[in-house]
Amino acid sequence: xxxxMIGFARSGKTTVFNAITGASAEVGAYGSRDANLAVIxxxxxxxxxxxxxxxxxxxxxxxxxxxxIAPAEGADADKTLDNAALNLLRNADALxxxxxxxxxxxxxxxxxxxxxxxxxxALEEELQITDFIIIEKRIERLExxxxxxxxxxxxxxxxxxxxxGNPLRTLPLNAQEDTVLRSFTFLxxxxxxxxxxxxxxxxxxxxxxxxxxxxxxxxxxxxxxxxKLEMEVSQLPQDEQEVFRTELGLGEESRIRFIHFAYExxxxxxxLTAGDPEVRAWTIRKGTSAVDAAGVIHxxxxxxxxxxxxxxxxxYVAAGSMAKAKEKGKVRLEGKDYTVQDGDIILxxxxx
Length: 352
Ligand SMILES: Nc1nc2c(ncn2[C@@H]2O[C@H](COP(=O)(O)OP(=O)(O)O)[C@@H](O)[C@H]2O)c(=O)[nH]1
Ligand SMILES: [Mg+2]
Fold this sequence. Notes:
The chain is of the alpha/beta class and 352 residues long. Helix content is 41%, strand content 20%. Guanosine-5'-diphosphate binds at residues 7, 9-15, 27-28, 71, 102, 104, 107, 197, 199, 226-228.
């Protein structure tokens, strides 16, 4: 899972990035041209438990990769994306818009004032315009080549949808159209979440009405945190972090909160693979078929897919070993179209 962090300059992207990933990238680095990348592991007790059975050489958790883009180069104050950012974000599976909700007179907002609703709208428009320009060029090209095919029809629909002020993520598509459109990597088609970055005064104050109104208006899900404070706490020694969190009333770690939020919002589940070399969790979307889940591991396994030997995690733990689970008839042989369930332990049989 790759998550791209976007937002206006000084909205606290890098601060939040540090808070969630435990990195210590420079904040307030307004002249920097470097993006920050970091990976976090998704804690999963099932991986730990399976490892006690399999005693594998390696335990591997599912991962989230975060991309914190650099400030846009030479852009107007109301633009957040430049070509470098667009290239980095193209492969992101989801976007997080970090919206400034903290007041601090020493930190200048590029638009001169703190106004979450304006920022949410402005960034939505920027994503849509970015996609629109690409679509328009592509349509022109297809027209020149007299190719009024399926792709052409789809792009015309996209164009009309954008012209009406809607992001591509709200355009109803069938599975095939969805695949075609995804290959363009349009930004407004990517799932997007809002992250409200609050000042310290907001802790325990549950009236972030401005942000919630903005999120509701655009149909976006919102997670709220105090970026600066979270970052400061995340940089303390591990044993002190807990004490401070309790004292400050910060609740669960922002890393864990973000993971739960993203799984929920993106409809993600995990399946597991287990053996002597490695016990591992893999992230997929709910509704993924066995053959597509195989493709997450390796394209060869997808191509040569024969069947998926599958057992539910709880059944495996109750049986205590694969042999006993088989005796009890708990191991199923599933075909390509089987919908993988959260916690399935799968052994893919394939032939290439
Ligand atoms: N007071 C306050 N300042 C913050 C908060 N989050 C970020 N900042 C400050 O805002 C400035 C810009 O933060 P940064 O993370 O570099 O923003 P970016 O440009 O979006 O990456 C820095 O001076 C941060 O210390 C916050 O929650 N409260
Ligand atoms: Mg930054």
